[in-house]
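Can you give me the bound-state structure? Components:
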Amino acid sequence: MAYEKVEVYSPRSLAEALELLSQKREAVKPVAGGTDIMVMLKDGVLKEKELLNLSFIPELSYIKESENRVLIGATTKYREIRRSPLINAYSPILIEAIRQIGSPQIQNLGTIGGNLGTASPAGDSIPPLYILNSRVKLQKLGSSREVQIDKFFLGPRKTVKESDELITEISIEKMDPGSYYFFEKLGLRSANAISIVSAAAILSLENNTVKYLRLSLGAVAPTVIRAVEAEELAKDKELNEELIDRIAKLAAESTKPITDIRGTAEYRKKATYGIIYEALYKIMKGYGKKVEYGFENTS
Amino acid sequence: MEANVSFFLNGKKVSVKAPPAKSLLRVLREDLGITSVKPGCEAGECGACSVLLDGQVVTSCLVMISQVEGKSVITVEGLEKDGELDPLQKAFVEEGATQCGYCTPGFIISAKALLNENPNPTDEEILEGVSGNICRCGAYPRIYNAIKKVVKKDGV
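Here's the bound-state model for the whole set.
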């Protein structure tokens, strides 16, 4: 079996982990929750022969607040994010997406840094991170850098992270109070289904006029994308059915989907239109979710 | 490649020597004789290998044994107390919530995790609580009834 030939290092601190990565000539694969790596290992597609187990580095798991951002340690589990009063209050779109990831089993193992490191275009935490203008902190021995989320991904399963670097923190914006948001995904079952199409949006309205729209799409291009043309079109316009139709059309045109076992490229384009139209229509009719900065409802 | 890992299995300390990237599922079955955890998909999608890891439900196929050092693992073998089945186990028996039985231990573990955290879940919470488990015989209505039975007994 493939696992018999794999070595695992289990450092007890970040310093120890970075030291170890700096000494290695060949890439060592970091393992956070393990939900992707273990499947790759079983399928025999994991290239690396050495793994870096991040389970015993407590300093990488935290959620804290700075002035207008929330900072999330890379190995913070989905479970903890879902239950975080800070994120529920300030950046609930991330909660909305994480609720729909995997299953209780996966949410108890999977981490936000792991979702970034895996870099699947269908990773469900990623569309919200795009419109929360997130920054990814990469650390190596003796230095660190922050990368804007849209500069972090190079393609499916490819990122700018060097093999001696670790993802250590993700910082996200606090959403404006009163803004609307949605995260919608299409999959084959509600639990444990890889997204065929996903969309995340934040919409700020004043007297039914769009102050700004931020819209990102997952699983319809080599990386998650921002639907920039649709965002620009929406600005300062009245939210009505005609505008919603044009936003959804422009967003669908900005996709570059592939055909795979989960859906055809044509289906993905049509579905992109459909989920955006429906979600914006709900907001227009008063059924949208709104940022309240309240601390009551943690789910 | 081998590593020594010690952890608490159903309340008792155990030590195993195993390849460090071996899954907890395979260590439980092959090295420790715990066969209630079933290898279904071994990809985290079916839930048949679910265990409680430090009290939280996880699919043991996705956990490396190296990650388990010092932690607590509970399987259905560890649910009975003094020879008495757990109320959930009893309810599964009484409701006939099992057909081939392959998914049953995983469902019971998921339901246990849910009820430990939330003794009086709504229907929606029950469905979400076991959403990571699949029953290919289609015993879902009886599984639901069994969980509901325990909720009603203990619920306020």
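A couple of observations. DSSP finds twelve helices and 15 strands in chain A. The mean pLDDT of chain A is 95.
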